[in-house]
Amino acid sequence: MSPLAAIARRPRIVAGNWKMNKTASEGVALARELVALRAGDPAAARAPRVVLCPPYPSLESVGGAIDGSGVELGAQDLHAETHGAFTGCVSGPMLAAVGCAWAIVGHSERRQLMGETDAMVAAKLRAAQRDGLIPIVCVGETLAEREGNLTEEVLVRQITAAYHGLDAAAARATVVAYEPVWAIGTGKVASPEQARDAHRVIRATLDKVSGAGRGSELAILYGGSVNAGNAAQLFAEPDVDGALVGGAALDAAGFSRIIAAASVGG
User: pLDDT tens for residues 7-16?
Assistant: First the structure.
């Protein structure tokens, strides 16, 4: 499947962000367990697109473990440049060379802990597309911003910065992940209504920045303490097209249940 032509309509997508967890051998075992569970699922034909984003050292080995299974490989980040004196960084061509089709950009942990700015996120989005990867563009507000009634302002700013200047085709070849920072790793989860309202703000902003109709075309995922117990309720919202899953993606059985909850008609 051609990465840049892949997101033409709104599919269901479930991506697992393993963050800084699992060695290469542990990642292979987890990936193989997930593949086996999916192979035995009678509803697998209706399943969403599934993406695994392990740490960099595990990419090639996990990619081998999922080869031919329909599960796709993604990276947790990338540098905006293709090469150079950037110690500790990894470029898009390097990721594509080990089989990645996807790359997360602008995750809140990168923004909050590593100081990534809106401009840096925009550059990484473009770098991912330049290098043949589908970017999962993360946006979301902190607890202080939500309590200050700034959620809409934050989402508009982040989406506008990321998508300004992209043509229609480039905008369509992306996925957005709404991740309220206050819900990531806290056990708190946005209510379906909160997720719906945020997704609608994102779609309206995409219409303004990238042209009428863009908002309805892009898949928007929810991320933030998604688990097997709350996934179905979130996916019941028409504006929620799937999930970017953190901790729950480290358990194959639980992650498989999240995938099943996102199955078309599931």
Answer: 445 889 999 9
